[in-house]
Amino acid sequence: MELAIKNPIAPTTQNFLKPKPKVKSLRVFSLKCVSSLSSSDGAATGVVERPWKTSDARLVLEDGSVWRAKSFGARGTQVGEVVFNTSLTGYQEILTDPSYAGQFVLMTNPHIGNTGVNFDDEESRQCFLAGLVIRSLSISTSNWRCTKELGDYLLERNIMGIYDVDTRAITRRLRQDGSLVGVLTTEESKTDEELLKMSRSWDIEGIDLISGVSCTAPYEWVGKTDLEWDFNREGRGEIYHVVAYDFGIKHNILRRLASYGCKITVVPSKWPASETLKMKPDGVLFSNGPGDPSAVPYAVETVKELLGKVPVFGICMGHQLLGQALGGKTFKMKFGHHGGNHPVRNLLANRVEISAQNHNYAVDPASLPEGVEVTHINLNDGSCAGLAFPALNVMSLQYHPEASPGPHDSDSVFGEFMELMKKVKQKA
Ligand SMILES: NC(=O)CC[C@H](N)C(=O)O
Asked: What is the annotated signal peptide range for this record (predicted)?
């Protein structure tokens, strides 16, 4: 089969667009835990409640479903958009990925918490997500790197979690109806109707969530990937100065850039392009970040001002901002991609990579002007997973080459960014 590099995706977004949430009447779902412990009641029905905790939390979705659950971590009431994540491991990296701001992450892996948390797997300075939804909270924690149990960690960081909720049923609902806004509460006094109203009066679209997660002043990043974990130690020769825009940057992007030989200055999301150019960088990185990419026109303007003046690399939100700066449009997908098992066709290398992904929006390839190439395609749904505009030294990925958590198949893209900076530097 001939691989066409230029915009090979059928110019349609209709398969991905999120439909309007269906308004249904309130229905309550509660999960009975099937236990292998014998009790006279349980033996008769095959179902018994765990004796040490009964449901003390509710998740009310905007479609009218009410999910009774048990709480861990912080208590209170919180609104957010529910998304499901299919990663089998790496819940600490997911919890600290700032791109989840405003969202409840529902893990499809039913067993969470068994390895606790540790000092090394943090992807940012705090947890920005709205909450965590899981099927089963591990009753024991055991790992040589563990420094704390998951529940204590969430409590310290004021993040709500619920367990003993039917995560498969909610995932099927999200797949069918699209991502849904919900309210999580431990407050008995709030009625289901009140919570439903609350969930229907909030929307993640159109909000600038980047400003709440970005750093507030520039700083130098020096940490490399620990050699023990670095599976790719080649090509660390030259030093390039990279200015990294922090739209909610994950630490592993910075570690990978440092390991590839970059001196890195991280700057806040509203850092002027003119100031960046004064720093004379060899390249600029636009990071991942939370929320609606069309709600941050100031960031698109900054990207536009830098285009053509310095090689640029965009990751996830950075890719979506680049798409807009090049003249394209973004749209909201039905339920997005969140997990460590997304197959992507890399059209430049003609190979399939299994990738880590976390996004609810995508660039519409049909909206892009001549000369912009789609370089990567998500093989699950054909959506645009990477772009290049060689004339302006632009490259970007919709997904996460830095993994954390996830497969490392796409790590070599950092090497491609080094090559791009080298080429431009040699010409200068
Ligand atoms: N990981 C990211 O950068 C996410 C980008 C954007 N917030 C989205 O959901 O599509």
From this structure: none
* Cis peptide upstream of residue 405 (ω within 30 degrees of 0): yes
Centre of ligand 1 to C-alpha 293, Å, is: 8
ipTM value > 0.90: yes
pTM recorded for the entire structure = 0.90
> What pLDDT digit, counting tens, does each position of 20-52 carry?
555 567 788 876 533 333 333 334 445 555 556
* Within a domain: 184: yes
In a domain, 1, yes or no: no
The domain containing residue 226 runs over which residues? 219-427
Catalytic residue among 251, 319, 342, 400: 400
Q: Do 163 and 249 belong to one domain?
A: no
Verify that 294 and 372 share a domain, yes or no. Answer: yes
Domain CATH code at residue 66: 3.50.30.20
Residue for token digits 């825009």? 245
For the stretch 49-77, pLDDT in tens is 555 678 899 999 999 999 999 999 999 99
Q: Are 134 and 107 in contact (CB under 8 A)?
A: yes
Q: To test the ligand 1 pocket, which listed residue (316, 331, 333, 400) has its Cβ within 8 A of the most ligand atoms? A: 316
Q: Cα of 288 to ligand 1 centre, how many Å?
A: 6
Catalytic one of 316, 319, 384, 408: 316
Cβ 199 vs Cβ 117: under 8 Å: no
Nearest to 295 by CA among 330, 336, 267, 338: 330
